[in-house]
Fold this protein.
Amino acid sequence: MEAQPQRSVTPAGPDPARSSSVEELAQRVVHTLTARGETVAVAESLTGGLVVSTLVGVPGASAVVHGGVVAYATPVKASVLGVDADLLAANGAVDPEVARQMATGVRTALAVDGRPATWGISTTGVAGPDPQDGKPVGTVFVGIASAERSVAAELHLEGDRAAIRSATVSELLTRMTIEIDSGE
């Protein structure tokens, strides 16, 4: 039996979105952004495309999803997303500032007609089976950026690779739902 992931030790806060399925969360994100005329771009490392795949599984997602960058290799985070190379050299890829810079950078990396995406979201972390950059398996950072601000959150998840990656998608979409709801 597959191990169930442990949720974040830094929870996003009490919210009804916590009990929603990942598909429902993706629908909320896509429908809210559509209603507002806003867009999203995705930068992923450990999730390897799962976030953008989940979003584009929602009918109508083409109106809001600019696309996704899978920056699995650390140097791609710098060369494509503009993450500070010195930061990567000093702290490695599993770092809150890296997640924040990935979310910020993907907004412009996937600009359409010279306009950055309204939102950038990102994932970076350790899905296992081995630690990375001195960080234990299950250490994950997710980032959310808009023109006004950028934030990163640390998650501590448990389970096998699939469980950690799946929980990361759920946590990021939960946090994105809370973030866009707070801007209403």
Summary: The radius of gyration is 15 Å. The CA atoms of residues 39 and 64 lie 4 Å apart. The mean pLDDT is 91. The beta strands are 40-44, 65-70, 119-125, 139-145, 150-156.
